[in-house]
Amino acid sequence: MTEPHHDRRGDGPVLLVVPGGAGHPMGLGPMTDVLAERFTVVTYDPLGLAHGRLGEPVADQRVEQWSDGASRLLEAVLGDGESAYVLGLSSGGIAALDLLTRRPERLRHVVAHEPPCVGVLPDGARQRAMFQEVYDTYRAAGPQAAAARLGAGLTGQEPGETVSGRPLSRQEELTDPMALFLAHVVRGFTSYAPDLAALATLSDRLTLAAGSDSRGQLLHRTAEFVAGRTGARFAEFPGGHVGAGEHPVAFAERLVETLAQHDEPCVSSDRPSASR
């Protein structure tokens, strides 16, 4: 069996990055440039969208598929007895939570940034229904209308008038990573229920993170809730939901600081900062 699609760069302890959306790592290069000064950064591409598979058929995605792929990737890049750090972003954060419950012996520490596992919340049924509306809007009116509905849902606003648009053709959908997320990822991942009891036994290896600009929003609340229920640490990172792309240097340095609080000096934030 071939290794899952990924990119590898840098030197040092392994840091597995699991992107959000449909797993396309676009926009993460500036952040991984900084991280590669301290880590062997392995960026997972679950659907191979950045590795020649954009435009090929995609099925509905399951969290366990991404988690299994990440596990196989770690087996390929880690030596005997070695373990890795993991940064999971958004939907990738959900996969990282699942990976931690399945392969804790291979993980040093996991940072899950704004994982949209909203079903754990007291109002989880309502929030899952909101994501279903996002999917239905996508199918009826296309990605721009769905993105507007998603933005309203994440910020707690009432949905406005539907943005005009049209459904994409199958070929158009297959060449648009955002459309693939809306069509094949958003429902399955937001309905996933993390094993909070299992995560509570691994809380020393887990940090839930959210953007400082996301305060008061749905996914900031979700991250705080999961941290509280599991006993894991909660940390704020620069920017909002896509802070890794908005503030790549500051986001990377915050990640280094977070990991350094839980492990050996090899990832100490005392090393010289990258130039901004």
What does this structure look like?
- With 276 residues, the chain is α/β, with parallel strands linked by helices.
- The chain has two domains: 6-120 and 190-267, Alpha/Beta hydrolase fold, catalytic domain (Rossmann fold); 124-187, no CATH class.
- It has 13 helices and seven strands.
- The chain has helices spanning 29-35, 49-53, 63-77, 91-102, 124-141, 143-155, 170-174, 177-184, 186-190, 196-200, 218-230, 243-246, 248-260, and strands spanning 6-10, 14-18, 40-44, 84-89, 107-113, 206-211, 233-237.
- A seven-stranded mixed sheet has the order 1-3-2-4-5-6-7, sandwiched between helices.
- Strand 6, helix 11 (218-230) and strand 7 (233-237) form a beta-alpha-beta unit.
- The longest helix is centred in the middle third of the chain and has 18 residues, at 124-141.
- It is globular.
- The protein starts with 5 loop residues before the first strand and ends in a 16-residue tail after the last helix.
- Residues 265-276 have low confidence and may be disordered.
- Residues 15-253 form the AB hydrolase-1 domain.
- Keywords: Hydrolase.
Brief descriptors of the model:
276 residues, alpha/beta, Rossmann fold, 2 domains, 7-stranded mixed β-sheet, 13 helices, globular, disordered C terminus
Question: Layout of SSEs?
Answer:
Elements: E1 6-10, E2 14-18, H1 29-35, E3 40-44, H2 49-53, H3 63-77, E4 84-89, H4 91-102, E5 107-113, H5 124-141, H6 143-155, H7 170-174, H8 177-184, H9 186-190, H10 196-200, E6 206-211, H11 218-230, E7 233-237, H12 243-246, H13 248-260
Helix pairs in contact: 1-13, 3-4, 5-6
